[in-house]
């Protein structure tokens, strides 16, 4: 009898992944970053320094630091958060995670049961939405304005959930460089969001993974910095500020929460050598690196915005990015970005269709997310031109164009 | 209103973890390894070499290798498995995981539903048993003899599960350097286990994390090497052969299984820098390192066996370890090793009580697992003497002793 693997699997196994064929020619998806900005030599110096000094500690789980993560690294993270985001952390309030994706999973696992409801921005990181769906947790989208998640809409949404007899359980927000809109929540709004959370006695999950990428520098204090009763669980990452192939994120929370997250983290710890690579890099070198990276990202953001203006003209509605690595683009109602995604994929142009980044189908259908951080300026120009060609061919939009390729 | 974190959590949140207080003085638990054997400088060379050459690839998720892991690393793993374990892998049949613990979780998630039954050795790795309990999966212990899991007992156990109307779903085995018994399954027995699996059409999960640690060198071919129809999913690790603070493991499986495991691995990839550290180390250097490590482990194993002979005398039943990092010790019926564990912990001697490593309560109650890899020879001698003191005080066993501390 030959073995039938599928019949041996659980009920409803996931569809098989496709084998990897390399990146598409025009790669505007995901959270890839600028290759030339990677501080590879400095990371190698940090690893080598620590391995030469403390390498024998690799013989024990968690080095000599226990399961929360390498202590000098947690101290460096705390110092960075206090310096950059106005927080008041120390090594004990930090849990190092295997990327912020593990942080998301741990926090959702600790707080949420099937049927619970999470309040979040109506345009929201797709990985959050998919993780909530996997847990059979519902989510309700809250309106955004220029200052971020609206506090009045949040309050109203919570009341509506309660009126339906459901249990609002958590406020999830990306306040600083919101994904995908890039908006930065004002300090005043942060206080308002905390007030709403207090009013309804809900925890706030502050996902701050993009917070270092404000092109002009500076940022408002973290929501966690403004909270005084341990209501905010915070996560961050080095995927966006350094590079996503390094899988190191972190959670900052008060001990009543952190101790339970630690109990759920049964992975034997996060990789020691990844932590070593960042550990001696997080001070002044990191700040200088982020300043330089932001200059590069600004150049690429402008190149993409210019290319969209040129090739999509009045068909495209968007804000010129002042932060982050994404541009959130709205096209006319006639366009279905999920279909555009499929056709463009087959022609080497990768985009994130808005449906994956939205709580509402009609809102998401005409929107798409474009990452400008990884491609070169020239590749951005060519790719946006090609995307406009494809969009025109499929939907008759953009109508008018100066692009001779579309004549 | 002050925030009550616990009331905001899910139903039945886990108990909080304790904050870490450092390792106990006599640390005979877990899978810690020999500090002096860590090849820290060579790992630093490997990281630095690759970062200097390919560091800009950190800008993309998965480097330029896709989600299965860094391609040169997967090639090196495949080559190592083919060379050392008689397997026939290539980079496409390898999935790099964040430690073998992630491999366990992924494989259990793919194959098992609540109520399914897994067949495994009656003395078995505690992390496997706890993961199955968390999933509400049942397990049935199979007898072991000197050649490993008994094929006749396995067949009988499967038939009994079926007779009860339950669904046997997987055979899980640690055939090479079994945890905790240290036994190595003979090649003949491997063929017999495959035959039983075929007879009942079950997959085999071969957990081979300790397989490099046979003191005399050499090992039988992996079960996966002897299987011809893709029935075996295999996992390995570098925690035992290099050091557990490095969180890199791997799965080897045919594509119908591997592609689904990959679909379940939604962590953004395993840390690139961890993979780089091992990537250029896995050839001749690795083989020489393992030979040297085995010599050290043999010395420590003998020190522990001698100390047990000296301090426990005829009260202790055990096999002198010829492999691995553990000694599996049986004490007389009067001893309850779970109580011994509690008392010893409070006095700085850490042991793994047999109950956590067994499928049967009465079998586990009088057994314990001792790790000899991390402590020094002198620390082993002192710690075993102290453990005998505590055991004598609590249970009147060992009766006679040459240890003056107990006069």
3D structure, described in words:
2 copies of one chain form a homodimer. The first copy, chain A, is α/β, with parallel strands linked by helices. Chain A folds into 2 domains: 131 residues, Aspartate Aminotransferase, domain 1 (Alpha-Beta Complex), CATH 3.90.1150.10; 241 residues, Aspartate Aminotransferase, domain 2, CATH 3.40.640.10. Chain A is built from 14 helices and 14 strands. Chain A has a 7-stranded mixed sheet with strand order 2-10-9-8-7-3-4, with helices on both faces. Chain A has a 3-stranded antiparallel sheet with strand order 11-14-13. In chain A, helix 6 packs parallel to helix 7 and helix 11 runs parallel beside helix 14. Chain A starts with a helix and ends in a 12-residue tail after the last helix. At the A-B interface, helix 1, helix 2, helix 4, helix 5 and helix 9 of A face helix 1, helix 2, helix 4, helix 5 and helix 9 of B.
Distance between termini of chain A? 60 Å
**Secondary-structure class of chain A:** alpha/beta
Across the major sheet of chain A, the strand order is 2-10-9-8-7-3-4
Overall 3D form of chain A: globular
What would you call the quaternary organization?
Answer: homodimer
Number of domain modules of chain A: 2
Strand content of chain A: 5-15%
In the CATH scheme, what's the topology name of the largest domain in chain A?
Aspartate Aminotransferase, domain 2
- The CATH superfamily of the largest domain in chain A is Type I PLP-dependent aspartate aminotransferase-like (Major domain)
Using only C-alpha atoms, the radius of gyration of chain A works out to 22 Å
Helix share, percent of chain A = 40-55%
Outline the biggest β-sheet of chain A: 7 strands, mixed
Largest interface chains and counts: A-B, 102 and 102 residues
* CATH architectural type of the largest domain in chain A: 3-Layer(aba) Sandwich
- Can you write the helix and strand succession of chain A as a string? HEHHEHEHEEEHEHEHEEHHHEHEEHEH
CATH class designation of the largest domain in chain A: Alpha Beta
Spans of chain A with pLDDT under 50 lasting ≥5 residues?
401-407
* Average pLDDT over all residues of chain A: 96
The total of beta strands of chain A comes to 14
- Helices of chain A, by number, come to 14
